[in-house]
């Protein structure tokens, strides 16, 4: 998988999210900024993002994904 493919998967399922993905060889970092994270604890934010790439993790195409999940207010 490429960072762009992972970014597209997350953006397709998290409408309106700003997504940036870096990495290679099955190990990636996704920075996701979304209003959907409002009032959610970190674990629930990560679950939302992992749900976007669940099939790729299950198949082994995506080995490891580090997630940085913030609301727009937390970035400002």
Summarize the structure.
This protein has 76 residues and is α+β, with helices and mostly antiparallel strands. The chain has four helices and three strands. The mean pLDDT is 95.
How does this model look, in words?
There is one protein chain. This protein has one domain: BolA-like (GMP Synthetase, Chain A, domain 3). Helices cover 42% and strands 28% of the residues. It has four helices and three strands, in the order H-E-E-H-H-E-H. The protein has a three-stranded mixed sheet. A hairpin with a 2-residue loop joins strand 1 (18-24) and strand 2. The model has no long low-confidence stretch (mean pLDDT 95).
How do the helices and strands line up, and which of them pair or pack?
Blueprint: H1 3-13, E1 18-24, E2 27-33, H2 42-52, H3 54-59, E3 64-70, H4 72-75
Parallel strand pairs: 2-3
Antiparallel strand pairs: 1-2
Strand order of the largest sheet: 1-2-3
SSE pattern, N- to C-terminal: HEEHHEH
Distance between the termini: 31 Å
Q: Into which percent range does the helicity of residues fall? A: 40-55%
CATH class: Alpha Beta
Q: So what's the overall shape?
A: globular
From the 3D structure, determine the CATH topology: GMP Synthetase, Chain A, domain 3
Number of strands: 3
- Mean pLDDT across the residues is 95
Q: How would a textbook summarize the main sheet?
A: 3 strands, mixed
- Whole-number total of structural domains: 1
Number of helices: 4
Low-confidence stretches: none
């Amino acid at each position: 998988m490429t960072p762009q493919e992972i970014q597209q998967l997350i953006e397709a399922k998290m409408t309106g999210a700003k997504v940036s993905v870096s990495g290679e060889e099955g190990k990636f970092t996704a920075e996701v900024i979304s209003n959907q994270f409002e009032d959610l604890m970190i674990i629930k934010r990560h679950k939302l993002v992992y749900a976007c790439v669940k099939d790729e993790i299950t198949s082994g195409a995506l080995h490891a994904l580090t997630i940085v999940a913030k609301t727009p207010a937390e970035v400002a």
